[in-house]
Design a protein that fits this description.
- With about 475 residues, the protein is α/β, with parallel strands linked by helices.
- It folds into two domains: about 140 residues, Alpha-Beta Complex (Aspartate Aminotransferase, domain 1), CATH 3.90.1150.10; about 280 residues, Aspartate Aminotransferase, domain 2.
- The chain is built from 16 helices and 15 strands.
- The strands form three sheets. Strands 4-10-9-8-7-5-6 form a seven-stranded mixed sheet, with helices on both faces.
- It is globular.
- The termini are far apart.
- About 45% of the residues are buried.
- The N terminus is likely disordered.
Length: about 475
């Protein structure tokens, strides 16, 4: 007779490993598979611990985290200073509701990020995820125009293949076509898209960078006019494009041009720096390297908390704040875990380390080394069409034909196969698909922690080359 199943749900927790193992052995297999993963086919690797740039798996393997998860772990894993800051906060206060209370960790984090109101950004609003931050930014833009007595401004213009989140509104303005398929008809309708600023794919033969920028700006202005400028609420874009098309730096004059167009028609400019911000491209704000192009509202997330706790932020320009300050005197929006004390304490500790250890200048320096290594190692790989990026934010785009830039058939999953081959050799990279038009094309992103060494970058690039070559041979 099979042993009866032990119900441990009512047993007190024990600190005895022997007892814990005994109880675990009596759980039948159906009680060990309740977590809903992203895929029912691919089982994720179990990580037992993480330290520095390394992930240590349950099967004994060590993996170099060359993508920092999803460009998140900018100071690496297992930092004891951050751990202690979290413990200290938990010992003081773990949670309060922001309708009635605030905490030092939240106040200090906002003051650290916006010290001196850089670029006129005056207020910070902290929530839990990038999607929440973008959703909050959209609602703030809507409230701004409501209080300006322009309620007809409901339309949002974004760019094809941009990515802004996974909630219904943020997915509606995003260009990840695969994620949108099941939700057609179940989305925000007041939205339209223009071309991405993606020179490798869309700058025409014989066209100069200046001419390409002018063409993009003309398209955007024509879209504003088509919709009716008085109906457009905001234009939203990633200053350096993230996973959708892979670390694309805009052409010269583009960001300044969209700022001028938004000013011309009284439209708000929202910069989404969820992935590219907080130092990832070598400056704290990614837009800073593109001249005088300051957003009205911007979002940050991944590097803000460095993965130690879920947190994201909306940073708001003084001219937006002033309208609410003198109007309703409130932001008509909130979340239960808004400005969570522990998350804010973690992010505060991370950002103090970034500043103290000068990790953003280091990111810029190591980024140049990474670029050099990538171009050297991959120069003879016939499947590598483009290498692009800035700071420690780089993409390798794959093609079937370098001359024509023809992408691989999506059914081949070339980028995903390279990613798996690299993982099998001990390096984690970030695979993306739909690079060309949302359906065709694939690329891999590299976004390692800022603490990565030159030797580790050499290893990453060599493994990537070997992985690419192994997949090329399979297609020969």
């Amino acid at each position: 007779m099979a042993p009866s199943k032990i119900d441990i749900t009512h047993l007190p927790s024990t600190d005895c490993p022997v007892i814990e193992r005994h109880l675990e052995q009596h759980l039948d297999s159906s009680d060990k598979d309740h977590l809903l993963h992203r895929s029912f086919i691919d089982t994720p690797a179990l990580v037992e611990r993480a330290e520095g740039v390394n992930l240590f798996l349950a099967d004994g393997r060590r993996i170099i985290d060359a993508c920092a998860g999803a460009a998140v772990a900018l100071i690496g894993h297992g930092n004891k200073e951050v751990h202690q800051a979290i413990v200290n906060q938990l010992q003081k206060v773990s949670y309060v509701h922001t309708q009635s209370y605030t905490t030092e960790s939240a106040e200090d984090l906002a003051n650290l990020i916006l010290r001196g109101s850089p670029h006129g950004l005056e207020k910070a609003f902290f929530v839990g995820s990038g999607s929440e931050a973008v959703e909050s930014a959209l609602k703030l833009a809507r409230q701004y125009y409501f209080e300006m007595n322009e309620p007809e401004r409901l339309h949002i213009v974004s760019r094809r293949q941009g990515y802004h989140g996974n909630t219904m509104a943020t997915m509606s303005i995003s260009g990840n076509l695969a994620r949108k398929v099941p939700f057609e008809g179940f989305s925000y309708t007041h939205t339209s898209q223009v071309s991405p600023a993606f020179a490798y794919r869309y700058m025409q033969e014989g066209e100069t960078e200046v001419e390409y920028t002018a063409r993009l700006l003309q398209e955007l202005e024509e879209e504003f006019l088509r919709v009716g400028p008085h109906k457009v609420m905001a234009f939203i874009a990633e200053p350096v494009a993230g996973s959708g098309i892979g670390c694309v730096v805009p052409p010269t004059g583009y960001l300044a041009g969209i700022r001028a167009l938004c000013d011309k028609y009284g439209i708000l400019l929202i910069f989404d720096e969820i992935m590219c911000g907080v130092g990832r491209t070598g400056t704290f704000f990614a837009f800073e390297e593109e001249g005088d192009a300051v957003p009205d509202i911007m979002t940050i997330a991944k590097g803000l908390g460095g993965g130690y706790a879920p947190i994201s932020g909306v940073l708001v320009h003084k001219r937006i704040v002033d309208v609410l300050r003198h109007g309703s005197k409130a932001f008509n929006h909130g979340h239960t875990y808004q400005a969570h004390p522990t998350s804010c304490a973690a992010a505060l500790a991370v950002q103090k380390i970034v500043a103290r250890d000068e990790l953003i200048p280091r990111c810029a320096t190591m980024g140049k080394i990474l670029e050099s290594r990538l171009r050297t190692e991959l120069q003879d790989c016939w499947s590598v069409g483009d290498i692009r990026g800035r700071g420690l934010f780089w993409t390798v785009e794959f093609v079937k034909n370098k001359e024509t830039k023809e992408p691989f058939d999506p059914d081949i999953h070339f980028g995903g196969r390279v990613q798996q081959a690299a993982f099998d050799k001990g390096v984690a990279l970030y695979p993306c698909s739909g690079t060309v038009d949302g359906k065709k094309g694939d690329h891999l992103m590299l976004a390692p922690p800022f603490i990565i060494t030159e030797g580790e970058l050499r290893t990453v690039c060599k493994v990537l080359r070997d992985a690419i070559e192994s997949q090329q041979r399979l297609l020969s």
